[in-house]
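I had to read the description of the data format several times before I understood it. For illustration, here is how one protein appears when written out as sequence plus structure tokens:
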Amino acid sequence: MNQDILFISDLHISLEKTEITRRFLAFLENQATTASTVYILGDLFDAWIGDDDNTPPNKKIKTQLKRLTDSGTRVYLQQGNRDFLLGPRFCAETGITLLGDYEVIELNGVKTLLTHGDLLCTDDIPYQTFRKKSHTDAWKDNVLSKPILLRLLAARWYRFRSHLHKRKQSQDIMDVNQQTVIDIMKQKGCLRLIHGHTHRPAIHDFKIDEKPAQRFVLADWKKDSAQLLRWNQAGHQTEAI
């Protein structure tokens, strides 16, 4: 049995991004079927307004994910800053398992921390303030109580405000804070971290208490390019999709 583990993040699927949707469906039908496990580390969707939203291409994505999990491939999903309203109904309809903000797994005998990455960007204080408020049950219940059309309009407004916020912030503020990275890795007892969110794919080598550590940043998907991180007994490699 194939024991390959695949990691992807930041697809930002939406109605307008037809090529990214096509790439993801192809991934689910090809590379994903050869793996034992797939981890989606946040922002699968550009905006998720609730599990009751079946506007295109959501229903097609759900159907293909369910087909993959029914075939025996395990799929785990972390919420990102764009799709943190993904919930139990989505999991039931797709067969995926929803993870918390931080998850520790073992890869080739090394404890590895998984997270979307937005919690590591502690220099972006306005975003962290919004995140704290928007992840309360009261805030979520208020949003999900609104009609779908109103939620769709609100999501478009949120994406526009997010775009303006990014334009006003420096690139350093939008990236992870290295001390925050070290602190959370020490707290979780890990010397390897895999995350997305920053759209700055790279492998960073550093030290934690004089021990070698690594931070893998997953690539965001674009119209003309997409990547996955594959892990198996031979080690890791990045593959184009």
Summary: Residues 5-240 form a domain with the Purple Acid Phosphatase; chain A, domain 2 fold (CATH 3.60.21.10).
